[in-house]
Amino acid sequence: MTEDLRLARQIIGRIERDIMDRRGLNYEWEAIDPAIMKEELMPEWERIITTEISSSREAGKMLPPVLDATCGSKTMWFDKNDKRCLYIDNRKGEYPVTRYSRPNTGPTTVAPDKVIDFTDMPFPDGVFHHIVFDPPHLSKLGDTSTFAKVYGKLLPDWRDMLKQGFSECFRVLRCGGTLIFKWCEFEIPLSEVLKLTTEKPLYGHRTGRREKTHWLAFLKALA
Ligand SMILES: C[S@@+](CC[C@H](N)C(=O)[O-])C[C@H]1O[C@@H](n2cnc3c(N)ncnc32)[C@H](O)[C@@H]1O
Protein backbone atom coordinates (compact mmCIF):
# COMPACT_ATOMS: atom_id res chain seq x y z
CA MET A 1 0.00 0.00 0.00
CA THR A 2 2.77 2.43 0.91
CA GLU A 3 4.54 1.76 -2.40
CA ASP A 4 1.26 2.29 -4.28
CA LEU A 5 0.82 5.64 -2.51
CA ARG A 6 4.35 6.72 -3.32
CA LEU A 7 3.84 5.78 -6.96
CA ALA A 8 0.48 7.57 -6.93
CA ARG A 9 2.12 10.77 -5.63
CA GLN A 10 4.77 10.61 -8.34
CA ILE A 11 2.14 10.14 -11.04
CA ILE A 12 -0.04 12.99 -9.70
CA GLY A 13 3.01 15.30 -9.64
CA ARG A 14 3.75 14.41 -13.25
CA ILE A 15 0.16 15.07 -14.39
CA GLU A 16 0.07 18.38 -12.46
CA ARG A 17 3.23 19.48 -14.24
CA ASP A 18 1.69 18.56 -17.63
CA ILE A 19 -1.51 20.48 -16.86
CA MET A 20 0.45 23.57 -15.81
CA ASP A 21 2.73 23.27 -18.85
CA ARG A 22 -0.31 23.17 -21.13
CA ARG A 23 -1.55 26.39 -19.51
CA GLY A 24 1.88 28.04 -19.78
CA LEU A 25 2.29 28.15 -15.98
CA ASN A 26 5.51 27.43 -14.13
CA TYR A 27 5.08 24.48 -11.77
CA GLU A 28 7.81 25.63 -9.40
CA TRP A 29 6.35 28.98 -8.35
CA GLU A 30 2.96 29.58 -9.96
CA ALA A 31 -0.35 28.32 -8.60
CA ILE A 32 -3.45 27.07 -10.37
CA ASP A 33 -7.05 27.20 -9.19
CA PRO A 34 -7.58 23.89 -7.31
CA ALA A 35 -11.02 23.43 -8.93
CA ILE A 36 -9.50 23.59 -12.43
CA MET A 37 -6.71 21.28 -11.38
CA LYS A 38 -9.22 18.77 -10.00
CA GLU A 39 -11.38 18.92 -13.11
CA GLU A 40 -8.40 18.22 -15.39
CA LEU A 41 -6.62 15.83 -13.07
CA MET A 42 -9.41 13.36 -12.31
CA PRO A 43 -10.04 11.78 -15.73
CA GLU A 44 -6.32 11.55 -16.45
CA TRP A 45 -5.67 10.13 -13.01
CA GLU A 46 -8.35 7.44 -13.32
CA ARG A 47 -6.90 6.31 -16.64
CA ILE A 48 -3.37 6.15 -15.32
CA ILE A 49 -4.11 4.49 -11.99
CA THR A 50 -5.47 1.44 -13.76
CA THR A 51 -2.52 1.14 -16.14
CA GLU A 52 0.61 2.34 -14.31
CA ILE A 53 -0.09 1.09 -10.80
CA SER A 54 -1.42 -2.28 -11.83
CA SER A 55 1.40 -2.87 -14.32
CA SER A 56 3.93 -1.88 -11.65
CA ARG A 57 2.30 -4.37 -9.25
CA GLU A 58 2.32 -7.07 -11.91
CA ALA A 59 5.98 -6.43 -12.70
CA GLY A 60 6.76 -6.55 -8.96
CA LYS A 61 4.91 -9.84 -8.55
CA MET A 62 7.11 -11.55 -11.11
CA LEU A 63 10.26 -10.70 -9.15
CA PRO A 64 11.77 -12.62 -6.22
CA PRO A 65 12.15 -10.67 -2.94
CA VAL A 66 15.95 -10.39 -3.02
CA LEU A 67 18.25 -8.65 -5.50
CA ASP A 68 21.99 -9.25 -5.75
CA ALA A 69 22.94 -6.15 -7.74
CA THR A 70 26.57 -7.24 -8.34
CA CYS A 71 26.53 -11.04 -8.15
CA GLY A 72 29.93 -11.74 -9.80
CA SER A 73 30.78 -15.40 -9.17
CA LYS A 74 28.39 -15.48 -6.15
CA THR A 75 31.15 -16.52 -3.73
CA MET A 76 29.22 -15.05 -0.78
CA TRP A 77 26.15 -17.22 -1.43
CA PHE A 78 25.43 -20.48 0.40
CA ASP A 79 23.20 -21.54 -2.52
CA LYS A 80 24.38 -19.97 -5.80
CA ASN A 81 20.95 -20.53 -7.35
CA ASP A 82 18.76 -19.44 -4.46
CA LYS A 83 15.29 -19.01 -5.94
CA ARG A 84 14.53 -16.15 -3.54
CA CYS A 85 17.10 -13.98 -5.33
CA LEU A 86 17.48 -12.32 -8.72
CA TYR A 87 21.19 -12.25 -9.55
CA ILE A 88 22.39 -9.46 -11.83
CA ASP A 89 25.79 -8.26 -13.07
CA ASN A 90 26.87 -6.15 -16.04
CA ARG A 91 28.88 -9.05 -17.51
CA LYS A 92 28.47 -12.75 -18.12
CA GLY A 93 31.12 -15.36 -19.00
CA GLU A 94 34.09 -17.40 -17.91
CA TYR A 95 37.22 -15.49 -17.01
CA PRO A 96 40.45 -17.53 -16.88
CA VAL A 97 42.39 -16.62 -13.78
CA THR A 98 46.11 -17.25 -13.80
CA ARG A 99 47.57 -15.58 -10.75
CA TYR A 100 44.84 -15.75 -8.17
CA SER A 101 45.93 -15.93 -4.54
CA ARG A 102 43.90 -19.09 -3.93
CA PRO A 103 45.48 -21.81 -6.10
CA ASN A 104 43.44 -24.24 -8.22
CA THR A 105 40.26 -22.21 -8.05
CA GLY A 106 39.72 -22.53 -11.84
CA PRO A 107 38.19 -19.83 -13.97
CA THR A 108 35.85 -17.27 -12.47
CA THR A 109 32.35 -17.91 -13.79
CA VAL A 110 29.96 -14.97 -13.80
CA ALA A 111 26.47 -16.29 -14.51
CA PRO A 112 23.82 -13.72 -13.58
CA ASP A 113 20.12 -14.35 -14.24
CA LYS A 114 20.18 -11.10 -16.20
CA VAL A 115 22.95 -8.84 -17.51
CA ILE A 116 21.97 -5.46 -16.04
CA ASP A 117 23.89 -2.32 -15.15
CA PHE A 118 23.26 -1.30 -11.52
CA THR A 119 23.33 2.36 -12.58
CA ASP A 120 20.19 1.89 -14.70
CA MET A 121 17.96 -0.96 -13.54
CA PRO A 122 14.80 -1.87 -15.48
CA PHE A 123 12.68 -2.49 -12.36
CA PRO A 124 9.76 -0.51 -10.95
CA ASP A 125 10.21 1.40 -7.70
CA GLY A 126 10.06 -0.42 -4.37
CA VAL A 127 9.89 -4.03 -5.53
CA PHE A 128 12.66 -5.79 -3.57
CA HIS A 129 12.60 -6.57 0.16
CA HIS A 130 16.35 -7.01 0.45
CA ILE A 131 19.32 -6.00 -1.71
CA VAL A 132 23.00 -6.84 -1.53
CA PHE A 133 25.32 -4.33 -3.19
CA ASP A 134 28.98 -5.38 -3.45
CA PRO A 135 30.46 -3.20 -6.20
CA PRO A 136 34.08 -3.35 -7.39
CA HIS A 137 36.36 -1.44 -5.03
CA LEU A 138 39.55 -1.02 -7.10
CA SER A 139 40.09 1.50 -9.89
CA LYS A 140 43.79 1.23 -10.62
CA LEU A 141 43.69 -2.11 -12.44
CA GLY A 142 44.45 -3.22 -15.99
CA ASP A 143 41.56 -4.93 -17.78
CA THR A 144 43.49 -8.21 -17.92
CA SER A 145 44.45 -8.25 -14.24
CA THR A 146 43.21 -11.16 -12.18
CA PHE A 147 41.50 -8.85 -9.70
CA ALA A 148 39.61 -7.12 -12.52
CA LYS A 149 38.42 -10.51 -13.80
CA VAL A 150 37.28 -11.68 -10.39
CA TYR A 151 35.90 -8.48 -8.89
CA GLY A 152 35.37 -6.15 -11.85
CA LYS A 153 36.82 -2.65 -11.61
CA LEU A 154 35.72 0.85 -10.82
CA LEU A 155 35.43 3.24 -13.76
CA PRO A 156 37.45 6.49 -13.76
CA ASP A 157 34.21 8.32 -12.82
CA TRP A 158 33.67 5.88 -9.92
CA ARG A 159 31.96 8.52 -7.77
CA ASP A 160 29.17 8.96 -10.33
CA MET A 161 29.01 5.20 -10.88
CA LEU A 162 28.56 4.39 -7.17
CA LYS A 163 26.29 7.37 -6.51
CA GLN A 164 23.97 6.23 -9.28
CA GLY A 165 24.28 2.61 -8.07
CA PHE A 166 23.18 3.58 -4.54
CA SER A 167 20.38 5.71 -5.94
CA GLU A 168 19.07 2.87 -8.13
CA CYS A 169 19.35 0.31 -5.31
CA PHE A 170 17.37 2.52 -2.91
CA ARG A 171 14.81 3.27 -5.64
CA VAL A 172 14.03 -0.40 -6.31
CA LEU A 173 14.15 -1.30 -2.57
CA ARG A 174 10.74 -1.20 -0.90
CA CYS A 175 10.12 1.06 2.10
CA GLY A 176 11.13 -0.86 5.22
CA GLY A 177 13.46 -3.04 3.12
CA THR A 178 17.12 -3.67 3.95
CA LEU A 179 20.28 -3.21 1.93
CA ILE A 180 23.63 -4.79 2.73
CA PHE A 181 26.60 -2.88 1.34
CA LYS A 182 30.04 -4.47 1.20
CA TRP A 183 33.13 -2.36 0.73
CA CYS A 184 36.85 -3.14 0.88
CA GLU A 185 38.87 -0.11 1.97
CA PHE A 186 41.99 -1.21 0.14
CA GLU A 187 42.16 1.89 -2.09
CA ILE A 188 39.23 4.18 -1.23
CA PRO A 189 38.16 4.89 2.37
CA LEU A 190 34.62 3.91 3.31
CA SER A 191 33.97 7.49 4.49
CA GLU A 192 34.46 8.73 0.90
CA VAL A 193 31.98 6.19 -0.44
CA LEU A 194 29.33 6.91 2.19
CA LYS A 195 29.29 10.53 0.95
CA LEU A 196 27.72 9.20 -2.26
CA THR A 197 24.37 8.39 -0.65
CA THR A 198 22.12 10.37 1.67
CA GLU A 199 21.01 7.12 3.37
CA LYS A 200 22.66 6.39 6.72
CA PRO A 201 23.78 2.87 7.68
CA LEU A 202 22.38 1.30 10.86
CA TYR A 203 25.44 -0.70 11.85
CA GLY A 204 28.35 -2.59 10.34
CA HIS A 205 31.06 -5.14 10.79
CA ARG A 206 34.66 -5.49 9.58
CA THR A 207 36.15 -8.66 8.20
CA GLY A 208 39.33 -9.80 6.45
CA ARG A 209 42.85 -10.33 7.68
CA ARG A 210 43.45 -6.59 7.96
CA GLU A 211 39.81 -5.78 8.74
CA LYS A 212 39.55 -3.67 5.60
CA THR A 213 36.28 -5.20 4.40
CA HIS A 214 33.14 -3.54 5.74
CA TRP A 215 29.62 -4.99 5.78
CA LEU A 216 27.01 -2.31 6.42
CA ALA A 217 23.26 -2.63 6.95
CA PHE A 218 20.85 0.07 5.71
CA LEU A 219 17.09 0.34 6.23
CA LYS A 220 14.91 2.26 3.77
CA ALA A 221 12.59 4.54 5.74
CA LEU A 222 8.95 3.46 5.97
CA ALA A 223 7.49 6.43 4.10
C1 LIG B 1 33.20 -7.39 -5.85
S1 LIG B 1 32.46 -8.22 -7.21
C2 LIG B 1 31.07 -9.03 -6.49
C3 LIG B 1 31.43 -10.33 -5.84
C4 LIG B 1 30.22 -11.13 -5.39
N1 LIG B 1 29.48 -10.42 -4.37
C5 LIG B 1 30.58 -12.52 -4.90
O1 LIG B 1 30.01 -12.96 -3.89
O2 LIG B 1 31.38 -13.19 -5.55
C6 LIG B 1 31.69 -6.88 -8.08
C7 LIG B 1 30.88 -7.29 -9.30
O3 LIG B 1 30.20 -6.10 -9.75
C8 LIG B 1 30.09 -6.20 -11.15
N2 LIG B 1 29.84 -4.86 -11.71
C9 LIG B 1 30.71 -3.86 -11.95
N3 LIG B 1 30.10 -2.78 -12.46
C10 LIG B 1 28.78 -3.11 -12.53
C11 LIG B 1 27.63 -2.40 -12.98
N4 LIG B 1 27.71 -1.14 -13.44
N5 LIG B 1 26.45 -3.04 -12.93
C12 LIG B 1 26.35 -4.33 -12.46
N6 LIG B 1 27.42 -5.04 -12.01
C13 LIG B 1 28.62 -4.43 -12.05
C14 LIG B 1 31.42 -6.78 -11.60
O4 LIG B 1 31.31 -7.35 -12.89
C15 LIG B 1 31.69 -7.79 -10.49
O5 LIG B 1 31.30 -9.08 -10.87
- Whole-number tally of structural domains: 2
The major sheet is characterized as: 7 strands, mixed
CATH architecture designation of the largest domain: 3-Layer(aba) Sandwich
**Bound compounds, please?**
S-adenosylmethionine
What would CATH call the class of the largest domain?
A: Alpha Beta
Topology order in helix (H) and strand (E) letters: HHEEEEEEHHEHEE
Low-confidence stretches: none
Would you tell me which CATH topology of the largest domain applies? Rossmann fold
Q: Topology, pairings included?
A:
Layout: H1 2-22, H2 34-61, E1 66-68, E2 85-89, E3 93-95, E4 108-110, E5 114-115, E6 128-133, H3 146-151, H4 158-172, E7 173-184, H5 190-194, E8 203-207, E9 213-219
Parallel strand pairs: 1-2, 1-6, 2-5, 6-7
Antiparallel strand pairs: 3-4, 7-9, 8-9
Bound molecules: S-adenosylmethionine.
Residues 70-76, 89-91, 110, 117-119, 134-136, 151-152 line the site of S-adenosylmethionine (SAM).
